[in-house]
Amino acid sequence: MFWNLPYIAVVLLSVIGLATILLKRNLIKIFLGVSILTSAVNLFIIALGYREGGIAPIYTYAVSENMVMATPQALTLTSIVIGVATSALMLSFAVIIYKTYGTVNVDEIKELKE
Amino acid sequence: MRMSKIVRFGADVLFGAIVIFGLYVIMHGHLTPGGGFQGGAVVATGAALVIVAYSYEEVIGMIRKTVLMAQESAGLVMFAGVALIAIGLGTTFFFNFLANSGSLFGMTVPFGPNPGELNTGGVLPLMNIAVGIEVWGGLAIVILYMLSGIGKTKEA
Amino acid sequence: MIPGYITTNAPALLIAVPLLGAFLSPLIGKISRDARALWVLAVMTLTALIGYLVAFLVYTEGTLLYVFGATNATLAVPPDSGGIPIRIIFTLDAMSALMVTIAVTVGFAVILYSLSSDSRRSGLEAYYTIFLLMIGAILGMVSTGDLFNFFVFLEISSLASAGLVAYKVEKGRAVEAGLKYLLVSTIGGIFFLFAIGILYGQYNALNMAMLADMIQWTPLDKLALVLVVAALAAKCGAVPMHFWTPDAYSMAPSAVTAMLVVASQASLYGLFRICFTLYGITLNYATIGWVIIILGILSMIIGVTMAIPQKDIKRLMAYHAVSQTGYMLLGVGVGLAVLGDQALLNSYGMTAMEGGIFHIFNHAMYKGLLFLTAGAIIYQVGTSDLNRMGGLGHRMKWTMIFFIIGALAIAGIPPFNGFASKFLIYESVFAFSPLLSIIAMVVSILTLASFVKVFHSVFMGPPLPGNEQVREAPRTMLIGMTILAAIVIISGVFPEFFVQNLIAPAAHALTDQAGYISAVLGGA
Questions:
Q1: Do the beta carbons of residue C143 and residue C92 sit within 8 Å?
Q2: CA-to-CA dists, residue C313 to A94, B97, C450, angstroms
């Protein structure tokens, strides 16, 4: 049970993230939902990489040559970098939308609806 | 929107420390947790601190957008260029041709607790430096552009 | 003739050249606009040549491997790794080679077109950077053999495409479209990453061949497949998640729209690759096949019925793109539904898959052509509203001819290529289920009706007031369209040649899971 805690947190975070994306009407809050969802998946991959008693693959601290494979950490790091790029682009879009429409409420942003 | 003198002085003092810490993280990327992206992001927070403390117009005078853009492109070109050199040497793209060669960054990595030998890792430190330069320029310019967008809304 | 180090490293150069070109183009743009245009064209030409070289190598010598960072490009499983492919490995089989061919062909035509169609715009220093990044990402998506690497290229292509869709701003409307596209693809990307995590947690591998070798079809695998299908179907604009397509396709600059079609097809490629190669016959192929068939049928019907009442020329074409995606899903879905049954697969399953894959090729060509003609019309008339065009036939003769070629191809009229692939689909799907085949034919007729309407309101009749000064599109735009139109005609007149030499190997590569695995793991 205790070792499942990270996965429970992953499920909770995903539900919170998805609920935020689907239920909130404010663009910035939707972006926060996307960020929460990204954090959930990052936590998921990091939790998968945990090995009990494993040695962190840091050369200056490792006491033995048998270290944990750092793939999940590398994946998470890449995912974080992509997340940064995505949030930067989304927030830039929000700035432009606020400048032109004067609102960040998705119900009022519907120039393209037909 | 410039902050009080205390905040500006604090930012001046902290800016140097933040940049040095960021460069430290970049340079030790192949030995300790961290690396080009993290270090570059730390340096960019230094830029963000200056932007918060001073007004947009003053920051534009201090940091030039074209320099940051050139920095971003240069970092990316260096990254791809280091990877391409390996093809010229008859191996594959991204091959670590400097590792254990005895030349620049070519020492063998010592195992066990040690103070950290910087001169190891082959092309990894070069890649970290390239990514650090790129992320530093890229994130700083993102922050600057967003600030300029907000500034214009207030005038309108 | 070609130096050995280029042929060995061609798969890496396929990605490296557009990326390096993209990063250098802002610096070159500092010199002058012409220098940048020349640079972008040179980079794209080089990329296209490398792409054709890669495709040629794959079709003549079989599956091509490229291991990044190894001493030897084909050393997929190093002796000291314990039999695990640890590095990022590009695995190009015939299907990937076909997608590479499509991407570089359309990319070259589109860049040529874009150099004049977008030259009036400001802020071009970043435009071509993002454009080349997008092309590089598409090439990466179709050539990688690593799941996580596929995700990275998927995200790069999403970010680049969203940035390009929003490039014109257009009083915020283009940004709104870009935002929709970005949200859908980001959430899709997160789902995809969840699926990667699930697979990695079970099998400790990211390489597709390695995973395909070990996969068990556990409940978690099913969950991962559901996430992948949802994410990639959203990215390729199949029906339940198609709402971003008309917005993004209509608001993007026309050259970008033509490339977006290829980006969607790269996602479609990912969907097929994961269903066929990763899961293969371990999955419950009849169920998944039917899911894909139903997605396809829904896309066909809803796409075409939504297209008929549209008044914006690019929005109309965007709905047709949704509808045509349905044909590809239908064709390949039928192949997937009979995957385990060798007799049925031989009698009509392979033909259906060849039809679906040939349709991917054809769709990229004629849909790209149609979007480019729409762009030329908008460029000269200044509006995308069908009611405010009219009588352009005399002024824009070449554009009209290209439009007719594209429209007849999309409606499946011989001798254009749409007919060839649709005929393969009708024929084989009829053997599978006559009803599906009839639906496909009806949709095709509706497509024709819709394009006759567009043709009439754009080119026929007297010129509307204000349209008297309209002239033919600039020459580089016409050259870009000519390339695509020539391919539409050639592949329509000689479909046998294309099917036998390009399409059939691709279809066989998709079904040949064992061949893919042994190409990477060395028959182990």
A1: yes
A2: 28, 54, 11
Cβ within 8 Å, pair A86-C159: yes
Residue whose token pair is 């601290």 = A61
Reported as a single tens digit per residue, the pLDDT across C342-361 is: 888 888 888 999 999 999 99
- The strand pairing partners of C146, in sequence order, are C207
CB B7 within 8 A of CB B53: yes
Residue C16, min C-alpha distance to chain B (Å): 7
- In this structure, what DSSP letter does residue B119 have? S
CB of B4 within 8 Å of a chain A CB? The answer is no
Which residues fall within 8 angstroms of residue A29, CB to CB, at 6 or more apart?
A20
Residues in C touching A82 (Cβ below 8 Å)? 152, 155, 159, 189
- Using alpha carbons only, what angle is made at residue C478 by residues C402 and C51, rounded to the nearest 5 degrees? 95
The type of residue at C479 is I
In this prediction the ipTM stands at 0.94
Q: Does some domain include residue C380?
A: yes
Which residue in B has a C-alpha nearest to residue C5's C-alpha? B90
Q: Which residue has tokens 């599109």?
A: C473
Q: Considering the domain boundaries, does residue C524 fall inside one?
A: no
The residues that bridge with C144 in the sheet, in sequence order, are C90
Domain hosting C105: range is 4-519
Query: Phi then psi for C120, rounded to 5 degrees?
Result: -75, -15
- Return the CATH number of the domain spanning residue range A2-101: 1.10.287.3510
- Let me know: does C436 contact C356? Beta carbons within 8 Å: no
Task: Kindly list the averaged pLDDT for each block of 10 residues, start to end, along chain C of length 524.
Answer: 79 91 87 88 94 92 86 76 80 92 93 82 81 94 92 94 88 88 93 93 88 87 91 87 88 90 92 88 80 91 90 90 91 87 83 91 92 89 82 84 92 87 90 90 92 88 74 85 92 89 89 86 65
Instruction: Provide the pLDDT for residue C475.
Output: 85
Q: List Cα–Cα distances, B18 to B11, C399, C485, in angstroms.
A: 10, 58, 57
Instruction: Give the type of residue at C425.
Output: I
* Cα C413 from chain centre: 22
Secondary structure class of C297 (helix, strand, coil) = helix
Separation in Å, CA A106 to CA A113, C234, C240, C242: 12, 20, 20, 19
Q: What is the DSSP letter of C76?
A: -
Domain count within chain C = 1
Q: Peptide bond preceding C415: is omega within 30 degrees of 0, i.e. cis?
A: yes
Structure tokens at C430: 């009829």
Of B31, B115, B142, the CB nearest to A88: B142
Closest CA to C43 of C70, C68, C25: C25
Pairing label, strands C89-92, C64-67 = antiparallel
Predicted pLDDT at C321 = 92
Q: What's the Cα-to-Cα distance from B19 to each of B43, B133, C206, rounded to whole Å?
A: 5, 12, 37
C253 part of a folded domain? yes
